Amino acid sequence: MRKEGARITLQDIAAATGYTVNTVSRALKDKPDISRETCRKIQQVAREMGYVRNYIASSLRSGRTKTFAMIVGSVLNPFYSILCNLIQQEAVRLGYSLFILCSNDDPEYETRLVEMAISRQADGVLITPCSFESPALVLLRDSGIPFVLLSRFLEGEQDDCVICDDEQGGWLAARHLLDRGHSHLAMFSFHHVVWSSRKRFEGFQRACMEAGVPAGNIHYAEFEGQTEAEIHACVRAWLDAGVTGFFAFCDVEAWNVLSRMGEAGTLENRTIEIVGFDNIFRYISFMKPICSVDPNLAEEARLAVDLIRRRIHDPSLPPQQVMLPVTLVSRHI
């Protein structure tokens, strides 16, 4: 007799249904050699009895934990929190669990998190590395654990990655501003981001040059480490030089600068337009929607999880680099 309050086992379900433990096990996994009717019957009884699969026991038998680790900068950044949510939905849909670790863009801490993922026997790691030289990547390669770079590409084509077309995104942002009549443009970011910062500016600059914009009318700045006063002085200098079209590395930075300029009165009697990146407004609402480049994060999540699953089941696959197309979402309200 089963003890009151004890975990429901396969043996309990077998006793309740009259099937063997092996049949019950295979039915709960939807194995094709068990009829659909039998699967439905056994699964219904299992639900009614409150059965929950014991993944620890399964991992001891299979050598896999059905777990992914995801290492990102910080979930305080909406880009990462949205991406984590989309990855988790995709992982759970395929029967995997996900634990999320935040590196705060610290290479040393990032390495410790990789060690933690390996020690917890994650089947694979999804990571947005904080630098090209991050020792965490060396550790991942040396460990042999499957991993996929998210939104990052490291030249050399040695690692699996899923990225968006950052250069095309920069081109679309500049082209949109040019089409809106702006002839003095500026791009800014608050941090240098592996691969993306350079490629987005390359695309931005290319669109300006194709349109015949003089080099002196194209501006770029990274505000990393700068004070509020320094950032404000730079933006004001751009405005005084005639800049009316802005491209922010991401939506959060676009809103940040718009808010700062508004609070400081910098925008009084000035008409500007700003384009962001990530299309955060697709997932969460802000008071002021803006035009933004959409990298299709939902598709990135789907492809990343699919790629790491394939890598887990076939480590001999050649490195896969997937680049997603981007679109510009225009919002003039």
Structure notes:
This protein is an alpha/beta fold. The chain has three domains: 10-53, no CATH class; 65-163 and 297-324, Rossmann fold (3-Layer(aba) Sandwich), CATH 3.40.50; 166-294, Rossmann fold, CATH 3.40.50.2300. 44% of the residues lie in helices and 17% in strands. The protein contains twelve helices and twelve strands. The protein has helices at 10-17, 21-28, 36-49, 55-62, 78-93, 107-119, 135-143, 166-179, 196-210, 228-240, 251-263, 297-313, and strands at 67-72, 97-102, 124-127, 147-150, 160-164, 185-189, 218-222, 245-248, 273-277, 291-294, 321-324, 327-329. The strands form two sheets. Strands 2-1-3-4-5-11 form a six-stranded parallel β-sheet, with helices on both faces. A six-stranded mixed β-sheet has the order 7-6-8-9-10-12, with helices on both faces. The longest helix is centred in the C-terminal third of the chain and has 17 residues, at 297-313. The protein is elongated.
Order of helices and strands: HHHHEHEHEHEEHEHEHEHEEHEE
CATH hierarchy class name of the largest domain: Alpha Beta
Radius of gyration: 25 Å
| Sheet with the most strands: spatial strand order | 2-1-3-4-5-11
Total discrete domains = 3
